[in-house]
Automatic annotation (TrEMBL):
This protein's record includes keyword Membrane: yes
Spans traversing the lipid bilayer: 32-55, 102-122, 134-157, 163-184, 191-213, 219-237, 308-329, 335-357, 364-384, 390-413, 449-472
Subcellular location: Membrane
Matches recorded under PANTHER family: SOLUTE CARRIER FAMILY 22 MEMBER (PTHR24064)
The name this protein goes by in its record: Organic cation transporter protein
Tagged with keyword Zinc: no
Record gene name: LOC117570091
Entry's Gene Ontology molecular function annotations: transmembrane transporter activity
Pfam family, one: Sugar_tr
Record InterPro entries: MFS_dom (IPR020846), MFS_sugar_transport-like (IPR005828), MFS_trans_sf (IPR036259)
Classification of source organism: Eukaryota, Metazoa, Ecdysozoa, Arthropoda, Hexapoda
Annotated membrane topology: Multi-pass membrane protein
Gene3D superfamilies associated with the record: MFS general substrate transporter like domains
Organism: Drosophila albomicans
Length: 495
């Protein structure tokens, strides 16, 4: 009787067309803890992507030369930084002011470039050599390069290693998302894809807390990097994706991992080997479907239109989110409180995205959130010479709208592109989105010419994204398009 009481209760798994999920369940205890573990890597992506806000925090400059008020004047022989708020920044370290002011924003553009190339490079590594080595590689690269940044003796040394840190950060974004999506069933995949953004939002918001207590840029960089040492636990706790092993023919390895997961999920294990081996025989015997290419996205008129419009949405959301986040730090008032509130609103924004996309659909949600960003930022154009609080409120609403748009762009894009070119479509959109992020700090610099130029550009592009959304079909509740023919026909009646 005692042995029977201790015997674990085996819960049957619903059999579906997915051979992997049919063995381990849609979303059980193992998948939950696996997601929580991988989500840790997303904190670092928020920190390293947006650390520039405080690494290059606004530091007032004054001229100590008698009868000269303009610190950038050639008549000014002695300049002095106000270090009452920040003791050191990269601006004070290397004198990135006046004619060198653009170098500060240029360093952040290199960060966005690093993320763009890193996601592409590690994405290819993950497909070729496996999800686990790619994920571990970029996690440890992020730790090592991030720590080297703290020791930067020169500006260009700093830029190069910030680029390499961002290169690794782009890899963690890409590979962590793939690892999670390949082990979760369809019932929870949509929810987790959106909640995946939450650790990034928390990372962004916590930067203000780090910066409040650490006012020297080298120690600040160290504090947001050293957390990555926790990634050492991934060596023991993150297995290879059983789905990748299965599709690449390493069936025995896939079965071993699936059996371990099934035990944790209290699922039956005795049928795993025969069912997986049978499923692989079907997979191997199947006539290979025509593989799509990037050019296929532009061959037919409606798929081409959808690709262009979705790319516009991605460019805009990256530009507005990263640009507005940086712009807020240049507004008056308490830089720590401004950033904490603005970034913190991204958390309820992401949660709101779950509800809005479920009940209102992807299209209406996208139009509303881009409209919120556009209206708030265009309103800011007329308030640039008013109170600091009004400016921060408007900019915060702009960032809040973008925080809802971001996870929706991932979800909607993944559902809209047909299976044969889904990776190509999402890869293209992500790459172009990073171009928007690359341009964002340079657009923020235009505020030094006229304060209203930056919010005007961000506001106009947000409205352009609303217009582009009109031409895209709703995907909620529809089966995913599989072939190029499906992709061309999908949503045509709604266009």
């Amino acid at each position: 009787m005692g042995d029977q009481a201790k015997k674990p209760v085996i819960r049957p798994v619903e059999k579906t067309g997915d051979p992997i999920i049919s063995q381990i369940g849609d979303f059980r205890i193992y998948q939950f803890f696996f997601c929580m573990l991988v989500f840790l890597s997303k904190f670092g992506t928020g920190w390293h992507t947006l650390a520039h806000i405080f690494l290059a925090a606004p530091t007032p400059l004054s001229c100590k030369t008698e009868n000269v008020t303009d610190a950038c004047s050639s008549d000014c022989d002695e300049r002095e930084f106000d270090t009452s708020v920040f003791k050191t920044t990269i601006v004070t370290e290397w004198g990135l002011v006046c004619e060198k002011r653009f170098l500060s924003s240029l360093s952040q553009s290199f960060v966005m470039m690093g993320i763009m190339f890193g996601s592409m490079f590690f994405g290819m590594i993950a497909d070729r050599f496996g999800r686990r080595p790619a994920f571990l590689g970029c996690c440890f690269m992020q730790l090592i390069c991030g720590l080297i940044v703290c020791l930067s003796p020169y500006y260009w040394f700093y830029v190069i290693f910030r680029f390499l840190t961002a290169f690794a950060t782009g890899g963690t974004m890409c590979t962590s998302f793939v690892l999670i999506m390949e082990i979760i069933g369809p019932k929870r995949r949509e929810l987790i894809a959106i909640l995946y953004q939450i650790p990034f939002n928390v990372g962004h918001a916590s930067l203000a807390v780090f910066a409040y207590f650490i006012r020297e840029w080298r120690w600040f960089q160290f504090s947001v990097t050293i957390f990555s040492a926790v990634f050492l636990i991934y060596i023991c706790l993150i297995p290879e994706s059983p789905r990748w092993l299965f599709t690449t023919g390493r069936v025995d390895d896939s079965i071993k991992i699936l059996e371990k997961i099934a035990k944790r999920n209290k699922a039956p294990t005795e049928t795993i080997r025969p069912e997986i081996e049978a499923a692989y025989k079907v997979l191997a015997a199947r006539t290979p479907a025509k593989k799509g290419t990037l050019l296929d996205l532009f061959r037919t008129p409606y798929l081409r239109l959808k690709t262009i419009c979705m790319a516009i949405v991605w460019i805009v959301v990256c530009m507005v989110y990263y640009g507005t986040a940086q712009y807020i730090s240049n507004l008056g008032g308490d830089i720590f409180l401004n950033n904490l509130i603005a970034a913190g609103l991204g958390i309820p924004g992401t949660l709101l995205c779950v509800v809005m996309t479920k009940y209102m659909g992807r299209k209406i949600t996208m139009m509303i959130t881009n409209a919120i960003s556009g209206i708030a930022l265009l309103l800011l154009v007329f308030l640039v010479y008013t109170s600091d609080k009004l400016q921060v409120i408007c900019a915060t609403f702009g960032l809040f709208g973008a925080s809802i748009t971001f996870p929706n762009a991932y979800l909607w894009g993944g559902e809209m592109f047909p299976t044969v070119v889904r990776s190509n479509g999402m890869g293209l959109c992500s790459m172009l989105g990073r171009v928007g992020g690359l341009l964002a700090p340079l657009i923020c610099d235009l505020a030094h010419i006229k304060l209203w130029i930056t919010p005007l550009i961000f506001g106009i592009v947000s409205i352009i994204a609303v217009i582009a959304t009109i031409f895209l079909p709703e995907t909620r509740g529809h089966p995913l398009p599989e072939t190029l023919e499906d992709g061309e026909a999908f949503g045509r009646k709604e266009a």
